[in-house]
Specification:
This protein has one domain: Porin (Beta Barrel), CATH 2.40.160. Helices cover 12% and strands 63% of the residues. The chain is built from one helix and eleven strands. The strands form two sheets. Strands 1, 2, 3, 4, 5, 6, 7, 8 and 11 form a nine-stranded antiparallel beta sheet that branches. Strands 9-10 form a two-stranded antiparallel ribbon. Strand 7 and strand 8 form a beta hairpin. The longest helix is centred in the N-terminal third of the chain and has 25 residues.
Length: 209
C-alpha cells in the first residue's frame, strides 16, 4: 500500500516531463547573428588575354598589317581603378614580314554606370621587318591609349572579382629609332632615322578584374 503513492508520483512525472520539454521547445527563440557583409570591393589580382589586329603606320613609308596576342597582368585596386602591364607579341603580314614585341603599363578607370573602361600609359618595344630585297629594325617608345567595352560580365555575390569578355581599341602614339637608313614596307622605301609611328589595334579577349 505504501508503494502506491510512489507509483502514482512516477506516472505523473513520466507524463509531466515530456510535456514540459515540448512546451520549452515551442517557446524557444532562435537568434541568427549576421556575420560581416560580403566584400563588395577591394584590391585583387587582374589578369587577361586577348587577340589583337591592326596596323603599324610609318609616315612617308607605308602601313604594315599586324596581328598578335596581348596580355594583361597586374592589380585591380578597386572596382574603378586598375594598374597593369600589357605585354604583346605581334606578327606582320603582307609583302613585308615582321615581328614585334612590346610592353606597357596602363592606368585604367572603369565606369560604374556602363561596362566601359579607358586607360593610358607608357609603352616601348622592338620591331623587325624584312622582305625579299631589304628590311629594317626599330626600337619604339611612346604612349598607348586604351578603351574597352564589356558586353558580358559575370560576378559572384560574395567576391568583388568580375570576369568578362571585352572588345577594345588601342592606339599607340610612338617614336621609332630605326637601326638603318633605309626603311622598306610593302616595297615602298624611304630614308629614316627617327620617325613618328601610329599603331591602331582592335582587341577582343577575356579578363578577370
Amino acid at each position: 500500500m505504501k508503494l502506491r503513492p510512489l507509483s502514482l508520483l512516477g506516472a505523473f512525472a513520466a507524463f509531466l516531463v515530456p510535456s514540459l520539454v515540448t512546451l520549452a521547445a515551442s517557446a524557444q527563440q532562435v537568434i541568427y547573428v549576421a556575420g560581416p557583409p560580403p566584400s563588395a570591393d577591394g584590391p585583387r589580382f587582374r589578369g587577361g588575354v586577348g587577340l589583337e589586329a591592326g596596323a603599324f603606320a610609318i609616315p612617308g613609308v607605308g602601313v604594315l598589317g599586324l596581328a598578335g596576342i596581348q596580355g594583361q597582368l597586374g592589380g585591380q585596386i578597386n572596382n574603378n581603378w586598375a594598374v597593369y602591364a600589357i605585354p604583346t607579341l605581334d606578327f606582320g603580314f603582307g609583302k613585308t614580314a615582321a615581328v614585334g614585341i612590346s610592353a606597357g603599363v596602363l592606368a585604367e578607370y572603369t565606369l560604374d554606370a556602363i561596362p566601359l573602361s579607358v586607360g593610358v600609359g607608357p609603352e616601348a618595344g622592338l620591331l623587325a621587318a624584312f622582305s625579299s630585297d631589304t628590311g629594317f629594325g626599330a626600337a619604339f617608345y611612346g604612349a598607348r591609349l586604351h578603351a574597352a567595352f564589356y558586353p558580358v560580365v559575370a560576378k559572384a555575390i560574395d567576391r568583388p572579382r568580375r570576369k568578362g569578355l571585352y572588345i577594345g581599341i588601342d592606339v599607340g602614339f610612338l617614336a621609332g629609332a630605326f637601326g638603318g637608313t633605309t626603311v622598306t614596307v610593302n616595297s615602298v622605301s624611304a630614308t629614316a632615322g627617327t620617325s613618328i609611328l601610329l599603331q591602331p589595334m582592335a582587341t577582343i579577349g577575356y579578363a578577370a578584374f
